[in-house]
């Protein structure tokens, strides 16, 4: 067989090596600062939607911007989110055993930034939120909301995996979602 660079087999049509090493392979080790950066860099190249996960603590609204949100199961309807241990939002969910997932629209970059700030006082101003059937805050202007009862919480390294059973799911507004990619907020080029 004809071979190309590094003895890789060559595609008969294009003459190009059939397998090409596109980047430097760095084994991820917990000890190395450098490889931690590579891990984060690779994760940043995975695009996601953006949510604000809300809850309450001692009767006060709490919430944070989260993109680690995913669905887990349909029967029963379960969702999950990974939240930093010790953050306001993680502590509030553990206390109230309830949370809401607000799915953000393309016009909500300001909300996404505001709720990514640990300064809780700035987050909830009068008029910018309502309350779900479960008594947990809903962020006005969001596309959709999932109201959840805490099903399970699992401590994993420096995050807690919160699994919630969805008790109510509803659309609130028409529009495209906001996306997060390479540390930037983006929107879809057009309506799908
Ligand atoms: C786009 C985006 C996504 C984020 N996703 C998460 C996440 O999934 N889990 C998490 O713990 N923090 C995430 N953060 C960071 C939190 O929003 C930030 O730590 C915030 O302070 C949490 O609020 P709290 O400290 O009041 O709970 C994200 C931040 C941004 C900008």
Give the key terms.
192 residues, mainly beta, Pnp Oxidase, Chain A, three-stranded antiparallel β-sheet, 14% helix, disordered N terminus, binds flavin mononucleotide
Mean of the pLDDT scores? 88
Q: Largest sheet at a glance?
A: 7 strands, antiparallel
**Fraction of residues in β-strands:** 35-45%
Helix and strand pattern: HEEEEEHEHEEEEEE
**The level-1 CATH class:** Mainly Beta
Biggest sheet strand order reads 3-2-6-9-10-5-4
Separate helix tally: 3
What name does CATH use for the topology? Pnp Oxidase, Chain A
Please mark out the parts with pLDDT under 50 across 5 or more consecutive residues, or reply none. 1-5
Q: List the domain count as a whole number.
A: 1
Fold and architecture overview:
With 192 residues, the chain is mainly beta. The protein has a single domain, classed as Electron Transport, Fmn-binding Protein, Chain A (Pnp Oxidase, Chain A), CATH 2.30.110.10. It has three helices and twelve strands; from the N terminus they run αβββββαβαββββββ. The strands form three sheets. The protein has a seven-stranded antiparallel β-sheet with strand order 3-2-6-9-10-5-4. Strands 1-11-12 form a three-stranded antiparallel β-sheet, with no helix packed on it. The longest helix has 12 residues, at 33-44. The model is unreliable at 1-5 (pLDDT under 50). It binds flavin mononucleotide. Flavin mononucleotide binds at residues 50, 64-68, 82-84, 87-89, 112, 116-118, 120, 180.
């Amino acid at each position: 067989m004809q071979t190309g660079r590094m003895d890789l087999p060559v595609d008969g049509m294009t003459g190009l090596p059939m397998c090409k090493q596109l980047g430097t392979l760095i084994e991820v080790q917990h000890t190395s600062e450098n490889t931690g950066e590579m891990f984060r860099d690779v994760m940043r190249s995975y695009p996601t939607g953006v949510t604000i996960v809300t809850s309450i603590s001692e009767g006060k609204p709490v919430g944070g911007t989260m993109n680690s949100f995913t669905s887990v199961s349909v029967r029963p309807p379960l969702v999950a989110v990974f939240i930093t241990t010790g953050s306001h939002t993680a502590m509030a969910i553990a206390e109230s055993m309830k949370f809401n997932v607000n799915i953000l629209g393309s016009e909500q970059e300001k909300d996404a930034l505001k709720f990514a700030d640990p300064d809780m006082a700035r987050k909830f101003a009068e008029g910018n939120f309502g309350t779900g059937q479960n008594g947990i805050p809903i962020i006005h202007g969001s596309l959709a909301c999932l109201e959840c009862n805490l099903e399970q919480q699992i401590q994993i390294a420096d995050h807690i995996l919160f699994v919630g059973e969805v008790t109510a799911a509803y659309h609130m507004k028409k529009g495209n979602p906001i996306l997060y990619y390479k540390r930037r907020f983006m929107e879809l080029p057009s309506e799908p």
